[in-house]
Design a protein that fits this description.
five-stranded parallel β-sheet, 649 residues, alpha/beta, seven-stranded mixed β-sheet, globular, binds 5'-O-[(S)-butoxy(hydroxy)phosphoryl]adenosine, GMP Synthetase, Chain A, domain 3, Rossmann fold, single chain
């Protein structure tokens, strides 16, 4: 048995596991064999203003269109329909600030806020099809803004508040946004981050934005530009507005969410209304089986797809009560998450392997300080979870009574693609495996030449057929949509990940197969970092790659050749860090920056990132016959040795 296989152990079957997996097999079979009937039934998870004419229009692959002709509105599904029934006074969100302040907002309260802000958007001239960039921290105005846009058909593009001015400007430009919604600041680990200042800087580089709406959150002083910037509280007043929800076509876009690819330019993943809504609500129900009175905590940031789908749309469509937490999970102390679970009697916790590994480092002492007995189910997302973190989570947080729902998916898939299904029938769990596909997802694992691999062999995971939550295209770039995702394996969706299927049919996701990094569950592009470095005055060449890290999954490492003019600059490394922080944001700042005299290149002058990485990580660099300057390899080695020495002292 290989080491990898050895770790694929099956957990002892507990009473909540159904060895036959309940209805899962049958439901899955129907989703594949009778997809039209299956999705026709499943679409009833939403209220439609008008039924659709066709479940799936696949006449123009890969531009698949779901529930064509159907009319609906997701803000209506998330809010209005609950207000008309027993959920009117139910909590939609229990919001907790980093300083412990709490706000509870009912479905009725959310309904009023969404209507008031939708009215404000209309009054400011926004109309169906316009784009708005949202750059907000984890405050209640964030879901309100998303739903208000959805209500009137404005396409929103949320930019994670940890991104810098350059990244924000790129997204504003690409989406052609007319408006930015932001706040004066964000609270993080006891500090205030000046979000409005970053917006001001980004707007110097763009020209499409006419209005900036600013939420007062931290009270720090900000510059308000006359005629452009306006306070949120001034536009909503304390109105009693009602705005008719726009009858959106199922295939009208809901949002653009930018994600990193293998070039410097982020990809604008464009999601639909009907297919996306059906998918996120169905997958949340299947995988986690949340009950009416459960308290659901998706501890992600709203700025990533996890937050869009499982803090906002899915839980609201299902009428659940969500916990929403504003701050850092280790602030003021590493028991913050466990304290929230105890105080708010959380039933389901959905978080990332990085968060688990971070908290695991502080030891069992912190979870033991709190009563975690309300927890029924745990979940993870964002990166492969290593069996030891899985077990720690299972034993020390779930006390070996809560199944762990490891959800594998992507920005592009809209919602879970592979995950155990508590609602349909849970399989015996294997720590580190996301187990089986959701209904409608038909994965295959292929070799580079497109042949199916044998069980236990590693390959590229592809999906053989479209599913309702799949993105419609890349915004303004249908050619890139086709070439990135559907060309490597003709007609199949290639997602960029390696996987293995074991002899029991379980899927094991093994990380990215392309030059994309996964740092703490955040998808970042190596080339974006290289571009930020190269465009700074001091840098001539750069090679950036990911290095495995016990807590974050991967950390960023950069090898940089500086220009002559900067050769004697002793502060070059902190300068470069600062530049990346300001341009791309703190999540992009490399853990290590090494200055070298040259980088390994091919004869045609292309930097061989693969070789730099292999040498730096002490691996065999593979084929270097096309290498032009072999001395550079020794330089990389020497830089690493030097770094290790310095790190030791
Ligand atoms: C990439 C997608 C899904 C929302 C958050 C990230 C990796 C994600 C898992 C998992 C193994 C995972 C993949 C994927 N990934 N979840 N449970 N097990 N790998 O969304 O930024 O679009 O990143 O994250 O590599 O392709 P994203």
């Amino acid at each position: 048995m290989s080491k990898e296989e050895e770790s694929r152990e099956v957990l002892p079957t507990k009473e909540y596991y159904n060895p036959k997996m309940g209805n899962y097999q049958e439901v899955y079979r129907r989703s594949i064999e009778e997809p039209d009937r299956f999705w026709q039934d499943q679409s009833k998870i939403l209220d439609w203003f008008k039924g659709f004419d066709e479940v799936l229009d696949d006449s123009n692959p890969p531009f698949y269109r779901w529930f064509k002709g159907g009319k609906l509105n997701l803000s209506y599904n998330a809010v209005d329909r609950h207000v008309k029934m027993h959920r009117r006074n139910k909590a939609a969100y229990i919001w907790i600030a980093e300083n412990g302040e709490e706000k509870i907002i009912t479905y009725d309260g959310l309904y009023r806020r969404v209507n008031n802000f939708a009215k404000a958007l209309l009054d400011m001239g926004m109309k169906k099809g316009d784009r708005v960039v949202i750059y907000l921290p984890m405050i209640l105005e964030a879901p309100v803004a998303l739903l208000a846009c959805a209500r009137i058909g404005v396409i929103f593009s949320f930019v994670f508040a940890g991104f810098g001015a350059g990244a924000l400007a790129d997204r504003i430009k690409d989406s052609g946004a007319k408006m930015v919604i932001t706040s004066d600041g964000a609270n993080r680990s006891g500090k205030v981050i000046d979000l409005k200042g970053i917006v001001d800087e980004a707007l110097e580089q763009t020209s499409s934005v006419g209005t900036v709406v600013v939420v007062k959150r931290t009270g720090n002083s900000v510059n308000m530009e006359e005629g452009r910037d306006i306070w949120w509280h001034d536009v909503v007043k304390d109105g009693q507005a009602y705005v008719d929800p726009e009858w959106m076509d199922s295939t009208d876009p809901l949002y653009i969410l930018y994600t990193s690819g293998t070039t410097g330019k982020p990809k604008g993943v464009l999601h639909s209304t009907g297919g996306y809504g059906v998918w996120v609500a169905s997958t949340l129900k299947w995988a986690f089986d949340p009950q009416e009175d459960d308290r659901w905590w998706c501890a992600a940031d709203i700025g990533w797809v996890t937050g869009h789908s499982y803090i906002v749309f899915a839980p609201l469509i299902l009428g659940l009560t969500s916990i929403m937490y504003e701050g850092a999970i280790t602030y003021p102390a590493p028991d913050r998450m466990w304290e929230i679970i105890e105080r708010y009697r959380v039933n389901i916790l959905y978080t990332s392997p990085t968060a688990i590994r971070t908290l695991m480092r502080y030891g069992e002492k912190y979870p033991r300080m709190h009563d975690l007995s309300t927890l029924k189910t745990l979940g993870t997302v964002g990166e492969p979870i290593n069996p030891s973190a899985w077990k720690w989570y299972y034993e020390n947080i779930g006390y070996s009574r809560c199944p762990i729902i490891d959800t594998y998916w992507q920005t592009e898939t809209g919602g879970f693609a592979i995950a155990p299904s508590l609602n349909l029938g849970l399989p015996p769990l294997k720590p580190g495996s996301a187990t089986f596909p959701m209904p409608g997802i038909e994965p295959t694992i292929l070799t580079d030449s497109g042949k199916e691999v044998k069980p236990n062999e590693k390959g590229f995971i592809v999906y053989n057929r479209p599913w309702p939550g799949m993105f419609m295209t890349l915004y303004n770039d249908p050619e890139r949509f086709k070439s990135v995702y559907f060309e490597k394996f003709k007609g199949k969706y290639y997602c960029g990940d390696y996987a293995v299927k074991d002899s029991d049919g379980y899927y094991w996701l093994l990380g990215r197969a392309d030059e994309v990094l996964n740092v703490s569950g955040h998808r970042l592009g190596t080339i974006e970092v290289e571009d930020a470095l190269i465009t700074s005055q001091e840098v001539a060449e750069a090679a950036v790659f990911g290095k495995p890290d016990e807590v974050k999954g991967e950390v960023i490492v950069a090898f940089v050749v500086v220009k002559e003019s900067a050769a004697d600059d002793r502060d070059i490394v902190p300068k470069l860090r600062k530049r990346i922080r300001e341009d791309l944001g703190p999540v992009y700042v490399p853990e290590e920056i090494h200055i070298v005299k040259s980088l390994p290149k091919t004869r045609s002058g292309k930097i061989m990132r693969r070789v730099v990485k292999a040498v730096a990580l002490g691996q065999v660099p593979g084929d270097i016959s096309t290498l032009e300057n072999s001395a550079s390899v020794d330089e990389v080695k020497a830089a690493i040795e030097e770094f290790k020495k310095v790190a030791k002292n």
